[in-house]
């Protein structure tokens, strides 16, 4: 880091001397200036990237807090012993999107995994030692000592009803949560086991993983310790196979960004197979076992695929239950449609007369996904398919989120797209 600062200092404060310019008569000053500017910008980007690394990547803090609470008997989980005693759960590459959401690739019992952990309270404690016990009290405060199993089941059921809606299938989900909490499989749930599973349920992505665990297009949950949890690692966590690093995106024109994405994207038949999987996922969350779910950040960076080019939802944290979206919109004051936005792009219309948000979303999942697939599929499309595919995608992108259009119309459009793509790649090595 010291060498990098010295380089930046030299670039900024040591311009070319007249003697050097005289020795290089063939080079115009403006070209030297452009070279100097390029070096400066490059140095600034590298400096900013590495200076932010220490803030984003706090895996050691997460591990320290979790293991401390595990050894005190406050938390439990199927991965605690591996993380804190046997050290067979190892943090590797930092993938954290923010300091409060720690994401790492890692190895667990010789298998590649993704490790996720939230350390909001831990960061506060690090800055102020007097607040150190606060995370234990705030995060792992429920259930309290003396809570019976029947009361805990009721707690879980009421929580699921509030977050997923009053679904008749929730009783079965409660049973699965109890089974997951019972780490030692003794038929009982200890206080530490109950506190750990309750803390995990407060995390949107974990709740969604449980709700959609039967679906083939979601990452599998592998284990947990307190509010740290492990999922299977998806080899390609972006629709295009790779993404431009976030610190470089502001420097690249959108046209260059698209060219880079298309360059690294899989062959068209494989893209078609991935797209079919994404459309199947939209179908699965439209009427799932535990209700309806909305994709509230439709981005190529949130969806990926495995080594067999089967689609996998890389980040379920961007998916929201219908109950949560409706609760957010209910009675919400608005001046324009943008005021009625849940997440990044789950937008409802604003009733300009009543100054309140309506409950139906402007764009359903399918329309947003088709917008994402437009550039992805139309680049390199076989000539005999391109016109028809473009027409179907255009129809799909104009779909409305009104409840009256959500059933038959959406199902027909989705079926047409899947059939069109499948006919082209069926009976080939890509199917």
From TrEMBL:
One Pfam family named in its UniProt record: PIP49_N
Provide the alphabetized UniProt keywords. Disulfide bond, Endoplasmic reticulum, Membrane, Signal, Signal-anchor, Transmembrane, Transmembrane helix
Boundaries of every FAM69 N-terminal domain copy? 22-180
Primary location group: endoplasmic reticulum
Name the GO cellular-component terms: endoplasmic reticulum membrane
User: What is the annotated localization of this protein?
Assistant: Endoplasmic reticulum membrane
**Listed transmembrane segments:** 29-50
Which residue positions does the secretion signal occupy? 1-19
Instruction: Please give the InterPro entries that the UniProt record associates with this protein.
Output: FAM69_kinase_dom, FAM69_N
Membrane topology qualifier: Single-pass type II membrane protein
Family note: Belongs to the DIPK family.
Q: What is this protein called?
A: Divergent protein kinase domain 1B
């Amino acid at each position: 880091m010291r060498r990098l600062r010295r380089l930046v200092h030299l670039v900024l404060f040591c311009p070319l001397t007249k003697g050097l310019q005289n020795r290089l008569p063939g080079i115009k000053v403006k070209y030297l200036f452009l070279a100097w500017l390029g070096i400066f910008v490059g140095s600034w980007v590298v400096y900013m990237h590495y200076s932010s690394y220490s803030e984003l990547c706090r895996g050691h803090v997460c591990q320290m807090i979790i293991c401390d609470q595990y050894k005190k008997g406050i938390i439990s989980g199927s991965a605690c012993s591996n993380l804190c005693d046997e050290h067979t759960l190892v943090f590797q590459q930092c993938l954290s999107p923010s300091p409060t959401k720690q994401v790492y690739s890692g190895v667990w019992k010789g298998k590649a995994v993704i490790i996720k952990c939230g350390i909001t309270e831990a960061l506060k404690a690090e800055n102020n030692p007097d607040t150190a016990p606060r995370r234990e009290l705030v995060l792992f405060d429920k259930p309290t000592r003396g809570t019976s199993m029947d009361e805990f089941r009721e707690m879980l059921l009421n929580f699921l009803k509030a977050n997923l809606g009053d679904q008749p299938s929730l009783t079965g989900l409660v049973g699965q949560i109890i089974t997951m909490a019972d780490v030692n499989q003794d038929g009982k749930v200890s206080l530490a086991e109950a506190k750990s599973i309750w803390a995990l349920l407060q995390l949107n992505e974990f709740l969604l993983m449980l709700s959609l665990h039967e679906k083939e297009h979601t990452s599998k949950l592998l284990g947990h310790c307190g509010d740290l949890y492990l999922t299977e690692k998806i080899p390609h966590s972006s629709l295009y196979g790779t993404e431009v690093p976030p610190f470089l995106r502001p420097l690249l024109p959108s046209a260059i960004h698209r060219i880079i994405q298309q360059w690294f994207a899989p062959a068209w038949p494989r893209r078609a197979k991935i797209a079919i999987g994404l459309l199947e996922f939209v179908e699965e969350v439209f009427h799932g076992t535990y209700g309806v779910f909305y994709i509230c950040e439709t981005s190529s960076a949130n969806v990926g695929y495995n080594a067999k080019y089967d689609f996998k939802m890389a980040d379920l944290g961007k998916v929201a239950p219908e109950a949560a979206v409706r609760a957010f919109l209910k009675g919400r004051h608005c001046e324009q449609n943008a005021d009625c936005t849940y997440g990044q792009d789950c937008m409802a219309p604003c009733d300009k007369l009543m100054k309140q948000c309506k409950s139906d979303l402007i764009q359903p999942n399918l329309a947003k996904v088709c917008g994402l697939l437009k550039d992805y599929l139309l680049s390199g499309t076989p000539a005999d398919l391109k016109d028809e595919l473009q027409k179907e995608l255009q129809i799909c992108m104009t779909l409305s989120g009104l409840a009256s259009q959500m059933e038959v119309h959406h199902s027909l459009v989705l079926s047409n797209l899947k059939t069109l793509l499948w006919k082209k790649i069926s009976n080939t090595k890509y199917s």
